[in-house]
Every structure is written in C-alpha cells, then in structure tokens.
Amino acid sequence: VLNRRQRIPTPMSSSESAPSVAFFFRHEFAIRRLHSLLGIVPLGLYMVVHLTTNASLMNGSETFQRAVYLIHSPGKLLPLIEWGGIFLPLIFHAVLGVWIAKTGKLNTGQYRFAANRRYSWQRWTGFVALLFLFVHILHLHGWFHAHFWLDAIGNFGLGVFKPYNAASTLVLAMQGWVWPAFYLIGMLCCVYHLANGLWTAGITWGLWISPAAQRRATQLCGVIGILLAIVGTTAWWAAVAPGREQAKEYRKVEDTMYSAAVESGWVPANDEKRSLADADAAEAAVREPELGAQQ
C-alpha cells in the first residue's frame, strides 16, 4: 500500500542552486526526521498549550489572566525562550516543509487511497497554517515591539493584544465577523496539520509500518485531532462570544490582578504589556467621584 506521495525529483529551476539541493539529498534522512520532530516538539506541544490556555477564558478572565501571567513570569528570558522554542523551530519547519511540497509530486491522481489524499491535505493545510500564523502574529502581537511600528499599525487594529490585559484586549481584537472567521479556519487547519502530522511522523520514524499498525495509528491520530479541535473551538468561542461590555468587565478584573501581581513580585511591572489608554480612562473614572465628593 502506498501511503505517502511519491517523491519524484523535478528539474531544478535556475533559482535553485545545485549545492543546496545536493546537501539536502546527502542529509535527507536526518533532515526529514528533524523536520517531523520539530513539528511535534516543540511546535505541536506549544500549540496544545496555547489552545488550552486560551480555552481557560471560558472559566473567566481571572483564570485566563493568571495563565498569561505564568507564561510571562520569566521576564527578560521570555524572548530567548520564544525564539529558541517557537520561532526558530517554526521557521525551519516551515521553510523545509515548503521546499518538500514544492519539489514533490502528489500521486493522488494515480493512487486514490485515503492516506494519499490526507497527505495532499497536509500540504495545503500547511500553507494555510503558515499564512494564518503570519497574520495572527501581526494582528495580535505586531511582529516587532518597536514603539513607532506598534503605533503605526495600531491605527489599523493590529498589534492590539496586551498580555497584562489579556482577556479584554483579545475580545476587542475579535469583534466583527472577519477575524473570527479567519481564526476559526486557521485554527482548524493547524489542528489537522498537527494531527495528520503525527501520523506521517510515525511513518518517518518507522513507528507504524504495517497496514494494521497504520490503521490503529489513523484512529489514534483521529481521536487526538477531534479532541484538539474541540479545545481549539472552545478557545475560539471564548474569544469571539463576549462583546465590548464584557470586555470592560474583564478589564476591571485585570487591573485589580495587575496591582496585586506586581506587588507580590509575581510579574515585573511593565506598562508596555498593558493597554495604557484604557488604564488612564479607568483611573480617571475612579478619581472623578472622589473629586466630586471633595467639591
């Protein structure tokens, strides 16, 4: 049974250098295994943690904010952790994945087995997931943390997520129908890519070779995909269901938690991780009754 697409070499274009192609084929065994491993650890593991953390918003903004505080507790070490454990593995996995998809030919036209169709879907969901992550990081985090850049894209509703006001800024960023639809499609593509990627990784690493073992692996990966889709959909709904009024209530909880967290030393004070415009408005609203009473 041919469970994967045939790897048929294609002629090199003028833009492809022979040394780089030769390097890949010399080390193909190790590179493909590293590619599949990074797709599971750390990238797949991070996606599970990320979706689970976002799904905790269903339990209220306090639970979600506490989880975000835990993520940001490393302080100045956080960028090193993000680049070493997320961004660099993602870049390697994405670049090599695009190269593999570009240089191979699908055999779904000749062999219409379900596994072959799943492999073609793996390629296309990979492209969608890459685009989704690219836009997702811009939408919520702004790519770069330079003030001039964040101020510029903020006028277009980009880079709006603030970790110390996690629930309120996330909810406000997901208003309307365009972003919710975009995130639902992107999230489901990421879930499929991971669940089916577990199956193909097992082939790559020789964990399930026989047809019987592959059938059992298909069932296992299918269950994992369904469970993760449920968690992801829960996280999506927790972000898109609340309105602006609910976001204001979330903000009150977050401001109270921020003062307590900084005072206890749980997280370092950092105004860049807060939505200061809303904070100033909240402080003004608190001071206004006090001034009225004094008059």
Polypeptide structure, described:
By secondary structure, the chain is an all-alpha fold. The protein is 73% helix and 0% strand. It contains twelve helices and no strands. The chain has helices spanning 18-26, 28-40, 43-55, 61-72, 78-103, 114-141, 147-154, 166-173, 178-204, 211-240, 244-264, 276-294. The radius of gyration is 23 Å and the shape is globular. The model is unreliable at 1-16 and 279-295 (pLDDT under 50).
Ordered list of secondary-structure elements with their pairings:
Layout: H1 18-26, H2 28-40, H3 43-55, H4 61-72, H5 78-103, H6 114-141, H7 147-154, H8 166-173, H9 178-204, H10 211-240, H11 244-264, H12 276-294
Helix pairs in contact: 2-5, 2-9, 3-10, 4-11, 5-6, 6-9, 8-11, 9-10
Strand-residue proportion: under 5%
Rounded average pLDDT = 86
Rounded Rg: 23 Å
Number of helices: 12
Which residues sit in consecutive blocks of at least 5 with pLDDT less than 50? 1-16, 279-295
Globular, elongated, flat, extended or rod-shaped: what is the shape?
globular
Give the helix/strand class. mainly alpha
Q: Spell the H/E element sequence.
A: HHHHHHHHHHHH
Task: Characterize the largest beta sheet: strand count, sense, and whether it forms a barrel.
Answer: none
Number of strands: 0
Task: Give the N-terminus to C-terminus distance in angstroms.
Answer: 85 Å
The share of residues in helices is: over 70%
